[in-house]
Design brief:
Elements: H1 15-58, E1 70-74, E2 84-87, E3 92-93, E4 98-101, E5 108-111, E6 119-121, E7 124-127, E8 137-141, H2 159-162, E9 163-165, E10 167-168, H3 171-198
Helix pairs in contact: 1-3
């Protein structure tokens, strides 16, 4: 069909038909955005689950400890197809790991990683009930005992001058290492989910 200069585009492709195509394309775009956000969120969720498993398989610690300390802090949405996985930066108190006091006050044997016997920390001992939470607390003496020294372990009162509480790896430190192994697996699973959604 030949168009004259006076003819408009609607003569060969009506505006109503064009609007239908635009609507279909918009609908497809919505589906893609929703599927992409869902896939990204699944990748983030799977990353957390795998990071938890790595934490528990590598460390001598109660499996329930990691709980919500590695978590999805921001989910993906249609407008922003990216999610964030965060991990607590605060170090883990040593009493959460496997430990035992040695006889004759010769220190504390602390086992953090699985597959090893741990290490003896000399000048360390266990306070059975810490003031902070009532749980045991492993501390190390950093100042030689002075005769007549007050036998209290309250924060303040010179505690920090005489002792230091012992901590070990934080969830964030462990996640920095495990995410290099976890992320590719999670992203691969998310990609497959996204492609299935578009079929």
């Amino acid at each position: 069909m030949q168009l004259s200069n006076k003819d408009s585009f609607s003569h060969v492709f009506g505006s109503a038909e064009l609007q239908k195509v635009i609507s279909k394309l918009s609908l497809l775009e919505d589906e893609v955005e929703i599927a992409l956000a869902s896939a990204v969120n699944e990748a983030a969720k799977l990353s957390v689950e795998m990071a938890h498993k790595e934490w528990n398989s590598n460390l001598r610690i109660d499996p329930g400890y990691i709980g919500n300390k590695i978590y999805v802090s921001r989910k993906a949405s249609r407008s922003k197809a990216s999610a964030t996985v965060s991990a607590r930066a605060r170090r883990t108190r040593s009493d959460n790991f496997s430990y035992r006091s040695l006889l004759d006050r010769k220190g504390v044997r602390l086992s953090v990683k699985k597959g090893g016997s741990g290490a003896v920390i000399k000048n360390a001992f266990v306070i059975p009930h810490a003031k902070s939470n009532g749980k045991p607390l492993i501390v190390e003496r950093i100042k030689k005992y002075q005769k007549g020294e007050a036998r209290n372990f309250k924060v303040g009162g010179g505690f920090g001058e005489r002792f230091k509480a012992l901590y070990s790896v934080s969830p964030n430190q462990h996640f920095k290492q495990s995410r290099e192994r976890v992320a590719p697996v999670a992203l691969s699973a998310a990609k497959q989910q996204f492609l299935r959604a578009l079929r």
